[in-house]
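no rush on this but wanted to send it before i forget. what follows is a protein written twice so to speak, once as letters and once as structure tokens for the fold. mainly i need to know what kind of three dimensional shape the backbone takes. thanks a lot i owe you, the record is right below.
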Amino acid sequence: MKKLAEIIELINLNKIKSIEVIDHNTDSNTKLMQLYHGIRLGKFKDDDSAKNKLYPNSKSNNAYYKLKHTLRDRLYNTLFFLDVKSKKYSDIHKAKLYIQKVARIADILIHKGLKKNAIYISKKGLKLATEYEFTEEQLIFAQILRGYAASIVGDVTMFTTYNEIINECCDLQRSEMKVEGLMLNIIVLYVNDKSTKTFVYETANSYIEELAPFIPEKKQPKGNNIKL
């Protein structure tokens, strides 16, 4: 109950009047939604066609570009409300979208001072991110938990545990970035030229040797057994 009360207090203090998103209940007669549907249905191929339809008698482009900016902001806001459990996504994709969303929420909560909720969601998020081996999200959750352990509860053991997770994740992330970079070094050779390139085989083999030091000796860092 205390966690719910914490969030309700934040929302009440911020006086949220409306959520500016695009949904099925938005008035379709507004210029904003005319622009949205015009783009969605392919009626507007460029700015000129949209501006001439929406502001036929206007000599200035200011109103149109302001409308376009508003639509962009609302579309960005709407991304937070996408159905991440949709059947069109694979299980791993669903998990990635969900954990990314939880990570953003945890980050907002801790910066707003809602410690109870931030710690609760970070603990759950770290466990799930570790299970799916999402390194970036593990770092976000572990950083929040490490800060809590050090500056709020002063628990040296807890701090050390999360600090080790972060260090391991940093090493792992460096390895992942290295692997991705080498993979893209090969992919970029074929984007504009699909011809056979005999040297790529040798290049790939050299990359395998280069990556050997980055292969971890132990499994992913685990935060599943941490108790708060």
In short: Confidence is low (pLDDT under 50) at residues 221-228. The CA atoms of residues 107 and 118 lie 7 Å apart. The two ends are 17 Å apart (CA to CA).
